[in-house]
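Handout, section 4.2: multi-component inputs.
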Amino acid sequence: MQFDSFSAFLDMGGYGFYVWLSFGVSTVLILALIFSSLRGHTQAIKQIAIRQQREKKLHQLRKQRNDTHIKTEVTS
Amino acid sequence: MTVNVQMNTHLVTPKFRITFLIIVNRRAKFMWKWLHPYADPEVSYHLTGKIIPWFSALTTFFLLIGLIWALAYAPADYQQGDSFRIFYIHVPAASLSMGIYLGMAIAAFTSLVWQFKLADASAASMAPVGAVFTAIALITGSAWGKPMWGTWWIWDARLTSELILLFLYLGVMALHNAFEDKALAGKAASILTLVGVVNLPIIKYSVEWWNTLHQGSTVSQLGKPAMSVEMLWPFVFCFMGFALLVGTIVCIRFRSEILLRNSIRPWVKALVLDQYPSNKVKNKIMENK
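Output:
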């Protein structure tokens, strides 16, 4: 250990502000990057799932419409 | 008889040529065959999924030890005192910002030359990570420059070229997101990446080519060891930790890119349905309405 006390550790030989500014900003930026990357993954899955659901619905509607169309043609 | 022989040679030569070509081709294919499965998005997706836990465990191991060592146990510099501890973030971040760019440039090159789609996905996942590490290098450098040089910023060669690197990263990110067609976006971003490679040697040698306020290389000076061992080891741990962190984050982002670029493939559909059941989606749609 290079420091005698905790306050000496915080003071960093007079350079405390600059040292803790560097370490603090770096930590914040890296944590933000990690969380945005993890969130991006769940977001991607959600986005694909919603698109998939919409396509399925459209497909069903189209099929329904085609069926009724054929029925009306047959009856007329 | 003679006619027969002539006919035979006539028949054999092209046949031989074809078999020869097939053999050569097979050999060339065999040489790279071990790499082929990794060009498949599904294989890459599952492989990176297996890598992530190992990388993140190693990251926490190296970074915890490295940062505590750097902050509390490494000796202070005889000239710079405790402000020297910024070095343990600044130098790994700066060299990784260049390393990531190099990786991105290799991916861009493979994407342009061999039309290799996964290369675009990996380049797109590397750009934001590189941008953050460049920003960290700039901010920590500035916070180190203030007490040592007396100024937060100066337009000298090293600092300016590193700032240009940040803008290159931002440009690449913007191009990857600028087009709906991901292949087109990848092409545009790849060209910008390759043009920007010229900045890498400028950053690297700026401290030698021009008179600058920035100090020369600390870690790797050929010939004599520049750093004392008590300072070098915590640096090695920090560097390994940050490098593995970059690997972890790039893997996470790479997987999302793969999913988004292959969303119509059956394996992605099955995977999404498995992780995000349809009733949940219905509820989400109802909420949006």
